[in-house]
Specification:
Elements: E1 2-8, E2 13-18, H1 21-29, E3 43-45, E4 51-53, E5 59-61, H2 72-91, E6 94-97, H3 100-109, E7 117-119, H4 123-131
Parallel strand pairs: 6-7
Antiparallel strand pairs: 1-2, 1-3, 4-5
Pfam families: DUF1178 (PF06676)
InterPro entries: DUF1178
């Protein structure tokens, strides 16, 4: 198996495994490789650091000179700040559950008044909304319905 670092047209970077370079090219050309964050099929190989094999299936990236990984504390602080920003935005937004795609589409075409909403949509529903030009944005962290909160 070969590990590829891939980048979608929206700038998301992710990792994927293929049996060969030819298998990657064939699947990409057939539209079978999609970004797990936004579903875009506009995929290209990302610039990647060389990886050194380790025991078993582990991989160890060789850091570039002068590059240091952020500390665990810095990562926790960044995630906490993003979660707080999302929570603040959701306070002013209404939960619509699985009706999200229908409500977003209705607001877009003018059948419903515009309002901040959030809810659930499948990848196919999100793709359809994006193709129709409906402005949506994925949430960074999973959100549960209000009735399931502690």
């Amino acid at each position: 198996m070969i590990v590829f670092d891939l980048r979608c047209g929206h700038g998301h970077v992710f990792e994927a495994w293929f049996g060969s370079s030819a298998a990657y090219e064939e699947q990409r050309a057939g539209g079978l490789v999609e970004c797990p964050m936004c579903g875009s099929a506009e995929i290209e190989k990302a610039v990647m650091a060389p990886n050194v094999g380790a025991k078993g299936n582990q991989r160890a990236a060789v850091p570039a000179k002068g590059d240091e990984a952020p500390s665990p504390e810095a990562i926790k602080a960044a995630l906490a700040a993003m979660a707080a920003a999302q929570a603040k935005a959701l306070e002013k937004s209404q939960w619509v559950g699985t009706a999200f795609a229908d409500q977003a589409r209705a607001m877009h075409v003018g059948d419903a008044p515009e309002a901040p909403i959030h809810g659930q949509a499948s990848l196919a529903e999100a793709k359809a909304l994006a193709e129709e030009g409906v402005p949506i944005a994925p949430l960074l962290f999973p959100v549960v319905p209000p009735e399931t909160r502690n």
